[in-house]
Amino acid sequence: MISVKNLSHSFYIGKKGKEKEIPVLKNISLTIEKGEMASILGRSGSGKSTLLNLISGYMKPDSGTLHIAGKDVTSNSESEWAAFRLQHMGFIFQSFQLIPGLTASENIELPLTLKGLAEPERKEQVREMLSRIGLEQHGGHYPSELSGGQQQRVSIGRALISKPDMILADEPTGSLDTETEQEILQLMKELNREQQITFFIITHDEEVAKISTKQYRLTDGMLEREGASVEI
Fold first, then answer.
1. How far apart, in whole angstroms, are the C-alpha atoms of residue 38 and residue 216?
2. What is the mean pLDDT of the chain?
């Protein structure tokens, strides 16, 4: 599902012509199969978010190759990436990133609207999703009227509604208390098991990483497979 080979990326600071190179990722290689739940564990500043942005096409690598869902996407244009994300990817964020002026149902419905599905079909799928994430009584509520755990459930519903091949999760429980974190992790595990959706999770939390079937650790821009050497 995701194959990364020798991916490297640096940031540059300073005036043009006198920039200082700051290496962030150094020859990263990893393979995540369909249906796996994989995590990248690392401290703040280790390069986790940069790796997620490269895999999702929001940044371009300096070198290396990236294959997702059997397609070489390394050189995709911005428009190609936008279409690819809509077709293949769903996203879960630490800060939820729900649209305040839309209800829970409308936030979940948004990807289907972007795909051009007819309204009756959209509404039916949203009703089913609200039931699956345990929010069937909260579809008409706005984000400000929901708890943090409920907002994250809406975020998960929005990520899943278009039936993506994979979910990319950026610190998915970072804004939640311990009890709510466990509820969200359990929901993610159930969805992975039931629907065979590939999960790619970046986190600094050892407890979050433990739910994964494959774990990597990112340290100073270098990646190691937990318990084994990384695939090259």
1. 8
2. 91
